[in-house]
Design goal:
Transferrin receptor protein 2-like; Peptidase_M28B; receptor; TFR-like_dimer_dom_sf; about 200 residues; 9 helices
Length: about 200
């Protein structure tokens, strides 16, 4: 339970970052999760895309709802009993050296803080510009593979066009939100609807 990892939709990066700054690490008393993660090379290094057999993946893939999966784990140590008949509270308690309650509390605090922010803030806390950076990385990779793609009769041009369109739309929406009165319920509802699409 030493290392914190998160599998998530990139839209949730700012939301999780705000929460891990406020929650104490379950193994390192007196230190926040983010301070321990920074000492391990940075928390964003621990962010991974949702994997196909993740319980959270179906929410994102089929419902379009940004989702995440949180983990505390020991680097290089796999808990071998997940999804088996041998999985029990006692085995888990043994694996985390009696800290199941402490780890559970840290996860509950993280989730609670994120839910509070999603429910309380006038504008849904989604980082819509994050996909622009992801699309830029994909564009760079496709540029490197351009010759190979052309041999196969494929063109990455549509990715470049889509990235530009998305980036402009995200920046325009972000500017519109920044320049509006967030007390105006009709406008915040409109912007939240656009963010979720």
């Amino acid at each position: 339970d030493d290392t914190f990892s998160v599998y998530m939709s990139p839209l949730l990066a700012d939301l999780i970052e705000g929460a891990i700054k406020q929650v104490e690490h379950p193994k390192h008393v007196g230190q926040s999760i983010i301070s321990v993660a920074e000492g391990q090379g940075g928390w964003r290094r621990r962010v991974k895309p949702l994997y196909l057999n993740s319980g959270a993946y179906s929410f994102t893939a089929f419902g379009g709802v940004p989702a995440m999966e949180l983990r505390f784990h020991e680097e290089g140590h796999v808990y071998p009993f997940v999804n088996t008949q041998l999985d029990s509270v006692l085995r888990l308690q043994e694996r985390v050296q009696g800290r199941v309650c402490v780890v559970g509390r840290a996860v509950a605090e993280l989730v609670g803080l994120m839910v509070l922010r999603l429910a309380h803030d006038h504008i849904v806390a989604l980082d819509i510009t994050h996909y622009s950076a992801t699309a830029l990385k994909l564009s760079a990779l496709l540029t490197q593979l351009s010759a190979e793609l052309q041999v196969r009769g494929l063109s990455p041009q549509w990715v470049y066009t889509a990235r530009g369109d998305y980036s402009r739309a995200a920046k325009t929406l972000q500017e519109a939100i920044k320049n509006t009165d967030i007390q105006d319920e009709r406008m915040t509802r409109l912007y939240n609807t656009r963010l979720m699409r």
